[in-house]
Amino acid sequence: MQGFPAQGNVFIEQNNYLWDMSATVDLSIIVPVHNEQDNLAPLVDRLHAVVSAMGLSYEILFVNDGSQDDSLNRIRGLANTHETVRYLDLSRNFGHQIAVSAGLDHCRGGAAVIIDADLQDPPEVISELWAKYRSGYPVVYAKRKTRKGEGVMKKWTAKLFYRLLRRITHIDIPLDTGDFRIIDRKVIDVLKRMPEQNKFLRGQISWVGFKQTFVEYDRAERHSGRTSYTYRKMVRFAIDGITAFSEAPLRLIAYLGFIVSGIAFLLIIYSLVSYFFLDNYVRGWASQMISMLFIGGIQLIGIGIIGEYVARIGANARQRPLYVVAEDNLELEKETDHGA
Q1: 140-151 pLDDT per residue, tens
Q2: Which of 64, 79, 200, 230 is the most exposed place for a label (fewest CB within 10 A)?
Q3: 122-134 as b/e: b if 16+ CB within 10 A
């Protein structure tokens, strides 16, 4: 099991899954980082204040996802001055969802909180997540009541996407939520056995099941810097979510095929009637070109949708690692654990 101390682990096999029973801290806080240099120190201070007041043993696991600013040096400095800070430096930018997956692979907690580094998700909500978690819910997600500092277009497209995804998928993905949540170790262990290349973690967590609930909160403005989550990345993220948990686009192609075939059949009848019974028939009429372009456009859309699914099958068949770690301080932490 990757990411745990090499000695003293106890595993129980149940339903073909290995549950780790030797978590070395109560809570892991997983923080994916991409160009967040000015947010890291305030984040650690607030996390330390919140979790220390809860009386828990914990770790803050930063995953540097190919940052181009000074984020890695800031993380190294925090690791040198805070014994609770651990980090992974990925060899390049692999994407937010894979960075979180890397953190889940290497965290040591009996439970894990996923939180972004920009301080839009207040660390103070962790105490509420923990209280609900301790009441018997293996998954507790944070549901946004308001979203400050975000444009109308982003809010509207996000709202539309999650409602569309909920309608076309066979699993219950919570509305108005991100990745900010707490999950139990048994959920983490199942996620580690789901090696899809195109990750959509909030969907995977819903797919895993178990009892789930939520706490509501007001999402704050970004503390510093600019988001690197462009509309292009949002579209790609949406495609990953839809193709990972729904076959509706493929069914839509079939429906469109029947509709287009019906329209084409009607056009054939109209062409025959015009040729034999009407005087306004002109060879090479414009409608022929329109119908050809229409059918060709539907075919291209269908090929594109099928291509998205085939590309994901190919990516998983190649079995490349999800990420590559260039640097970490995990071995040092293990030596410290064994020497204690």
Answers
A1: 988 887 766 566
A2: 230
A3: bbebbebbbebbe
Question: Locate tokens 């980090």: which residue?
Answer: 87
DSSP state string for 79-137 = HHH-TTEEEEEESS---HHHHHHHHHHH--EEEEEE--TTSSS-GGGHHHHHHHHHTT-
CA 195/CA 193 separation, integer angstroms: 6
Rounded CA-CA distance 241/178 in Å is: 13
- For residues 78 and 82, what is the distance between their CA atoms, to the nearest angstrom? 6
**Burial of 256: CB neighbours in 10 Å, binned 0-12, 13-18, 19+:** middle
> Alpha carbon of 165 to those of 13, 155, 160, 168, 189: distances in Å?
34, 15, 9, 5, 25
- Give the distance from CA 182 to its chain's centroid: 14
Phi, psi of 6 (to 5 degrees): -75, -15
Write down the pTM of the prediction.
0.66
Task: Supply angle C-alpha 203, 204, 207, rounded to 5.
Answer: 90
Which of 18-22, 39-43, 229-233, 265-269 has the highest mean predicted lDDT (pLDDT)?
39-43
Instruction: Give how far Cα 161 sits from Cα of 65, 90, 102, 219, 223, Å.
Output: 25, 30, 26, 19, 26
Distances in Å between the Cα of 155 and the Cα atoms of 34, 148, 224, 251, 306 are 22, 10, 20, 28, 29
Tell me whether residue 299 is exposed, middle or buried, using C-beta atoms within 10 angstroms of its C-beta: 0 to 12, 13 to 18, 19 or more.
middle
